[in-house]
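Write out the 3D structure for:
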Amino acid sequence: MSMNERYEPQSIESRWQKRWAEARTFAAGRRPEAEKRYVLEMFPYPSGAMHMGHARVYTIGDVLARFLRMRGHDVLHPIGFDALGLPAENAAMKDGKHPAERTRENTISFREEMKSLGYSFDWDREIVTSDPEYYRWNQWFFVKMLEKGIVYRRQGKANWCTGCLTVIANEQVLESDGEQRCERCGSPVVEKVIPEWAFRITAYAEALPSPGRPRRSRSSRPASTRSTAARMSSSRRSTPSSRASRDPSGRPRSAPSSSACARPTPRSARGRGRRRRASSPVPRR
């Protein structure tokens, strides 16, 4: 068989991609004893066609995932489609199609093109955010957080695209001739106050460790956590010292020399991690 001087991916890569798929080469869990690694790129928005920006991002992630596999790790490298949102709806209205139909077509096209590029995704774990079997759990989590008072309604400033009729990120706002314009459609962008949902993350501020932050006093802990910490502390104090100083036969233990053992851990440091976890505050409603 003669070797062509010109590389022809259509005649070579499809054959190997088929073998990879049949062998589930990139499925997570194939090395249960190996150290695990997780590689995740931002999911694409199937509101349009795939372009070189997508190819660049997923090539970088694919290189990292393959490198980690070659290092012997068990790698989870999933993929999905962030298909639920106003950009997809606007694209569907522009084409005169129903958003569900347009999104489904774009997702199929994206999937075929990404597979043709040979990315090492675990396709068994693919998710599509417009699938009711997926977003029903988003709704469930949101309702639970709402019941606990972790999310709340407020007014906030946002970048509003007058063409897309949706909020866009700061990175999507371009300066053009002294005006702010949308990166996607070129329409003017204005600052608009709109109602939004926010997370009450400050309720967990005391649970997050930071350098230089003093430990919370015992009196400031909730009663349930104070009693837990007290039980743990009393269980350590209730151990007789004679039990630690004698061997199983009842004879006194000989004290090891300083050169034969490491410096003992102070009592104040032992169990610190357990007490810290026990003192995590309960968020207020």
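The longest strand covers residues 151-161.
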